[in-house]
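stage 2 :: seqdesign
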């Protein structure tokens, strides 16, 4: 069963969903959604990371990033990935203080812009025990037509992608995803701040190598074959993984048969099981890595 939780952090509300798991030695798993979605992205019926975590004994939290869902926006309208990382660093620290007793540490999961922010968080070397990061739906080079499209959007408020565009860019072809799942996932859809869209095709590609080089925990990286927001090639996967040159180990793969929103595809369970296996390995290898 999924439970909603609120975390007051520095007087600002941070909302999340929790699925309890009590397996001995299992780390705390915290998931960060991408742009244009809220925390429910990880809890779509039939494709729920939270349900799978509960069934396998992992305590999993899905957190609304600032300004999404039930989480308050940052003061002054701050929307940069670095600003979000700072705020989420504090929020995860509060989660750890309340729910981390007896746990070996935290494994941070991210999708899309949430992955970029997870890298920012890891590069900060947080005070709470980060064991590893699992990221997917992010790369270092977007197709030219995506960059041009995002940069020509009119200035102003948040952007709502039309349903047809969302289906084309974020999901793979028929046979990789069920139409009913795409419909069910609409409960997690929100408008995305234009600033996020511009940063993911602008500042992020320029900063990712430097940020990744500061990450000193294990990394799991997945890019889907039909991801419409990134240049998808084996060489790009290898290049992206290579940025994490200070990580103890990096597990990188190009996932065939799925699109950008891999968590909602028919292969979602395979992804989530690999993520939880990665979390378990991070916890099991932690003493050796720190010894």
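stage 2 :: out
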């Amino acid at each position: 069963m999924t439970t909603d939780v609120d975390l007051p952090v520095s007087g600002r509300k941070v909302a999340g969903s929790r699925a309890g798991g009590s397996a001995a030695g299992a780390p705390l798993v915290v998931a960060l959604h991408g742009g244009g979605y809220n925390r429910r992205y990880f809890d779509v019926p039939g494709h729920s990371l939270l349900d799978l975590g509960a069934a396998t004994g992992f305590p999993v939290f899905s957190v609304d990033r600032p300004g999404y869902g039930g989480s308050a926006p940052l003061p002054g309208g701050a929307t940069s990935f670095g600003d979000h990382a700072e705020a989420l660093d504090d929020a995860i620290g509060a989660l750890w203080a309340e729910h981390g007793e007896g746990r070996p540490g935290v494994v941070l999961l991210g999708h899309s812009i949430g992955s970029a922010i997870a890298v920012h968080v890891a590069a900060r070397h947080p005070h709470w025990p980060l064991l590893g990061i699992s990221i997917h739906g992010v790369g270092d080079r977007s197709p030219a037509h995506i960059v041009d499209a995002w940069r020509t959007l009119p200035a102003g408020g948040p952007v709502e992608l039309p349903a047809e565009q969302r289906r084309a860019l974020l999901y793979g072809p028929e046979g990789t995803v069920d139409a009913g799942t795409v419909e069910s996932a609409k409960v997690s859809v929100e408008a995305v701040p234009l600033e996020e869209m511009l940063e993911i095709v602008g500042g992020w590609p320029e900063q990712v190598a430097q940020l990744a080089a500061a990450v000193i925990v294990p990394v799991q990286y997945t890019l889907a074959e039909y991801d419409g927001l990134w240049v998808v090639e084996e060489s790009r996967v290898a290049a992206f993984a290579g940025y994490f040159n200070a990580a103890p180990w990096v597990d990188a793969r190009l996932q065939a048969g799925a699109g950008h929103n891999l968590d909602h595809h028919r292969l979602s369970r395979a992804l989530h099981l690999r993520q939880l296996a990665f979390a378990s390995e991070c916890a099991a290898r932690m003493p050796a890595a720190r010894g």
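stage 3 :: structure notes
- The CA atoms of residues 49 and 251 lie 20 Å apart.
- The mean pLDDT is 94.
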